[in-house]
Amino acid sequence: MKTAITEMFGIEHPIIQGGMHYVGFAELAAAVSNAGGLGIITGLTQRTPELLAKEIARCHDMTDKPFGVNLTFLPTFSAPPYPEYIAAIKEGGIKIVETAGRSPEQYMPALKAAGIKVIHKCTSVRHSLKAEQVGCDAVSVDGFECGGHPGEDDMPNMILLPRAAEELKIPFVASGGMADARSLVAALALGAAGMNMGTRFIATKEAPVHDNVKQALVAATELDTRLVMRALRNTERVLRNKGVDRLIEIEREKGRSLKIEDIHAEVAGVYPKVMIDGKMDAGAWSCGMVVGLIKDIPTVKELIDRIMADAERLILDRLAGFLGAETKAALKVA
Ligand SMILES: Cc1cc2nc3c(=O)[nH]c(=O)nc-3n(C[C@H](O)[C@H](O)[C@H](O)COP(=O)(O)O)c2cc1C
Fold first, then answer.
1. Ligand 1 center from residue 325 Cα (angstroms)
2. Ligand 1 mean position to 42 CA, how many Å?
3. Mean pLDDT, range 289-295, rounded to an integer
4. Helix (H) or strand (E) run with residue 272 in it
5. Atom 11 of ligand 1 has which residue's CA nearest to it?
6. What value does the mean pLDDT take over residues 245-271?
7. Nearest-atom index, ligand 1, CA of 285
8. Does 77 score more than 70 pLDDT?
9. What are the tens digits of pLDDT across the range 182-221?
10. Closest Cα to atom 8, ligand 1: which residue?
11. I need a surface site. Which of 23, 95, 194, 328 has the fewest CB within 10 A?
């Protein structure tokens, strides 16, 4: 399939694997890129720029296809050394960066000078337009359904994507709630040039996380995510577990006076406990509503091949099937 996104990034299929803390290691990024999508290493999971450089080198050893690096601009006072991370990305020969969180404006000159294409992930039309204005090449439009940080507008993709299509000049992919061929075809119909998946890629053979995580995703339904940290205006969609139940109880008690210190135990240092040790009740970790659509743990290639084959059938059989005989004859579809 050819879209503005496959052309821009030099990939075969319009499918991107979004950066994921403690999931987006070289193994997953390489598997996605080898299967014709765009794999992405999560920059800040590597604690230093030197470690990121090593992870990039490891990924180059596993694939000769294009892959990217995610740089999440966190709302923290002690910011990571972003210029050094960007230097590691540049020296690692990376040509695609997925930015997220705050606007990448400050870092655009450095990224552009290195010939890097920037796709910024954001949850609203206004932030998408800002990304376009500051020189991003594409946007990943992340709806309310998404795993991770859906922003504070609560705008589902059924509205957000066509609104983005009305306003943006640069291409965009649909992110949040994407799992299969139905998601891809719907995203294309709503104006996107591809899709970005997070949660779905965790339930794959190559995702380098504890098997408990994959089994939890298969077992969970679309009713099993919760929004936390709304009172801090740092809303995150997470998979429900005992730690999250505790967190929600604290949020109820504290109300609008909630401070990050009140929930430190349920949000800090949780990712290694869950993703490496498989401790599923450790606390808050991102997970999308799309978990309700995850029923198996295929290889990344099986997943992507299935999506592309089903998408063709969906378009040619189901959608073309709704057309009248004359239209079909004119379009030359059976
Ligand atoms: C476990 C997990 C960790 C994530 N970590 C990050 C991150 O560090 N940076 C980021 O930009 N997005 C992160 N995301 C968001 C994903 O890149 C992607 O935008 C999101 O998962 C899309 O929604 P979906 O889960 O419905 O596919 C994370 C998502 C998950 C599920």
1. 43
2. 10
3. 98
4. none
5. 100
6. 96
7. 1
8. no
9. 999 999 999 999 999 999 999 999 999 999 999 999 999 9
10. 21
11. 328
State the Cα–Cα distance between residues 8 and 17, nearest whole angstrom. 16
pLDDT digits (tens, 9 = 90+) for 140-189: 999 999 999 999 999 999 999 999 999 999 999 999 999 999 999 999 99
Residue closest via CA to ligand 1's atom 13 equals 20
Q: What is the phi/psi pair of residue 174, to 5°?
A: -85, 135
Cβ(156)–Cβ(145) below 8 Å: yes
Q: How far apart are CA 249 and CA 36, in angstroms?
A: 44
Sequential DSSP letters for 90-142: HHTT--EEEEEES--GGGHHHHHHTT-EEEEEESSHHHHHHHHHTT-SEEEEE
The answer to whether 151 and 276 are in contact (CB under 8 A) is no
Q: 3-state DSSP call for residue 244? A: helix
| Atom 17 in ligand 1: residue holding the nearest Cα | 18
Q: Where are the alpha helices (DSSP H) in 42-99?
A: 49-62, 82-91
Residue 297, exposed/middle/buried by CB under 10 A (0-12, 13-18, 19+)?
Answer: middle
Residues with CB under 6 Å of ligand 1 are 18-21, 23, 42, 70, 72, 100, 121, 142, 145-148, 175-178, 196-200, 285-288, 290
pLDDT for 334 equals 72
The number of beta carbons lying within 10 Å of the beta carbon of residue 234 is 15
